[in-house]
Amino acid sequence: MQLKLNFIIFKNFVPLFLIILFSFSSRSERTSLIYKFTNRKSDTIIIKLPKPLVKGIMTVEEALSKRRSVREYKDTCLTLQEVSQLLWAAYGISDSVKWNGFGLHTAPSAGALYPLELYLVAGNVSGLPAGIYKFRPKGHCLILVKSGDNRSDLCDAALKQKMIKYAPASIVYSAIFARTTEKYGNRGRERYVCMDLGHSGENIYLQATAMGIGTCAIGAFEDKKVAKIINMSKDEEPLYIMPVGKLKE
């Protein structure tokens, strides 16, 4: 009985201890801190992302004028801060005001229903082990889906477009269409979700440009292969792959 009680105390104490440790760690330590939250069903690895910036050094007008699709990148890593900024720009929460149960995001969404899901396929990001991660806007964090460098597999599924293999990371979009079609029917599938994707993808383009990072929106890939590599749920459909990396010049 005493042994069982001690185990319960330990099991509940460890996650609390790690959260406390995170709150007192230095800024540099926070960028690479990985903590495990244990529940009854499984162990979930959660990476808390650095806080995104809300003020930069490039104007929107300048970013618009310089935006291009970039297919070659420097052979250098991205930082966790840079990844954090890109993901926040794409679909992060910009206002905690609740609408339909969600905070308001950086990208507009029809009916504020937010059907998109974002994944990070990381291969060369400092402070982040190679793997596939799901971005969770609430809490601004990553959830480990699969360990290991999956860039080559994703490249093969995208008709061997080499930019995916050699970019430090790629952001992969999927959509749960039911979130939108439940309210808007076929118009949600045919128009509104695609509009949501366009808004979010352009945010990545502009944020990347402002940071000296290149990206390219890719829609040519084998859907089933991409979904399998990413471990998407059955109700998700892949939409976009956006490799990201430092500009060569």
Mind explaining what this structure looks like?
The chain has 249 residues and is α+β, with helices and mostly antiparallel strands. The chain folds into two domains: 2-48, no CATH class; 60-246, NADH Oxidase (3-Layer(aba) Sandwich), CATH 3.40.109. It has nine helices and twelve strands. The chain has helices spanning 2-24, 27-30, 60-66, 80-91, 151-157, 162-166, 178-184, 186-210, 223-230; strands at 34-38, 43-48, 78-79, 93-99, 102-105, 116-122, 125-126, 131-136, 141-147, 169-175, 213-215, 237-246. β8 and β9 (141-147) form a beta hairpin. The longest helix has 25 residues, at 186-210. It is globular and about 45 Å long. 36% of the residues are buried. Residues 1-40 have low confidence and may be disordered.
Short description:
By secondary structure, the protein is of the alpha+beta class.
Helix-and-strand structural type: alpha+beta
Radius of gyration: 19 Å
Global outline: globular
* Overall CATH class of the largest domain: Alpha Beta
> Can you write the helix and strand succession as a string?
HHEEHEHEEEEEEHHEHHEHE
Please count the helical segments.
Answer: 9
Q: Segments where pLDDT lies below 50 for 5+ residues?
A: 1-40
Kindly report the spatial arrangement of strands forming the biggest sheet: 1-2-9-8-6-10-12-11
Find the CATH superfamily of the largest domain: NADH Oxidase
- Which CATH architecture of the largest domain would you pick? 3-Layer(aba) Sandwich
